[in-house]
Amino acid sequence: MRGAVMHGPGEIRVEEREAPRIVEPTDALIRVSAACVCGSDLWPYRGIGTGDGDWPMPMGHEYAGIVEEVGAEVRTVKPGQFVVGSFWASDNTCEICRAGYQSACVDRVPMGALGAQAERLRVPLADGTLVATPDVPSDDLVPSLLAASDVLGTGWFGAVAAEAGPGKTVAVVGDGAVGLLAVLAARQLGAERIVAMSRHESRQRLAREFGATDIIEERGDAGVAAIKELTGGLGAHSVVEAVGTQESMNQAIHATRPGGHVGFVGVAHGVAIDGMDLFWSLAHVHGGPAPVRRFLPELIDLIWNRQIDPGKVFDLSLPLEQAADGYRAMDQRDAIKVLLTP
After folding, report:
1. Is residue 169 pLDDT above 80, yes or no?
2. Which one, of 3, 7, 12, 135, lies nearest residue 61 by Cα?
3. How much is the pLDDT for 51?
4. Closest Cα partner for 153 from 100, 108, 193, 107?
5. Residue 86's closest CA among 314, 290, 251, 276?
6. pTM score, two decimals?
7. Cis peptide, bond prior to residue 56, ω within 30 of zero
8. Domain CATH for 222
9. Which of 267, 287, 307 is the last residue of a domain?
C-alpha cells in the first residue's frame, strides 16, 4: 500500500509500505477514508526531539474510515462500518480508562507508530478504540469526523480541563487547529466570553465563526495585559494553552485569575514551570495528551446531527501522494490544517 514516511527533518516521501494485517485477535483493519497532518507532526519535521536512529518513521495518527476486517475477538465494530478512532489505541476497560483517561491506558498503543497517513491501517484494541457512526456518512461529514480523531478531541479536552462553562471568560492561547477547536468547544460548553489570541486574519475569522467574542493579537506579557484589561484586571476564569512553548505556557498561567483553571494540550517542548510562579498564581493546572476516546461518542453525535462543523479547520485538502506539500504548507503557516485523501 501507499503511505507517508518521514526519512529525516523536512523529508516526507509517499512510498510503498507493507500492507497491514491482523496481528492480534483484538485488531481491526480499516481502509482510510481521510487522514491529516497534525501540528505535532511538525516537531520531527523540524528536527526537534528526534535523533539519527528515529528514521525512517511512518507518519500520521488521525484517521477515519471503513472497517475491512476484524480479529476473532472484536465485538463492537464490523466490516462495512465507518469508524473514528483516537490517536491512542486503548482497551477502554482498565481502571485508568474507566476514570476517563484513555490516553494513559495501561495497554495503550500509539497510533502514530502505525502510520495513519496511508491507504490502510491496523487498529489495535479495536473494541476500546473505535466508535462507529450510525451509518456511512456523506462525503461532506468526513472532514469533521476525522477532526474528532484528535484535533477536535484535543481542543475539547483543553476546554474541559480549563473548566470552560456558563458564566466563564475563556482565553485560548494558540491559533492553530487545536486552539481554534478549543474555541468551538468553549462555545459548546456554554462559555460567556471567548478570547482567541491570534494575529492572523484568516485564523481570526475562523475563530469568530467558531464562537470567539474577542480577538487579542498581542503575545507574551502584552497578551496577558490585554486579557487582564478585558477582565477588570482579574484574568480569565479558564485558559487553554494549545502551543507547547515556554512563552505560551507562561502566558496561559499569568492570564488566569486566582482560582482559575489552565488546560494545557500543546505538546510541551522546552517548557519549565517555575514553582514559585505557580504557587502565587493560585491556578489549577491540568492537561496532557487528550483522552479523545472519552469524548468520541458525544463529538460524533454533535457532528452527525450537524450541530458543529469542526471540519472547517481543514483549509487545504490534498491527495495522499502530495503529503510533502501538505507538510510544507503547514510548516510555513500557509495552511491551518491539511487533509489527506488516500
Report:
1. yes
2. 3
3. 78
4. 100
5. 290
6. 0.96
7. yes
8. 3.40.50.720
9. 287
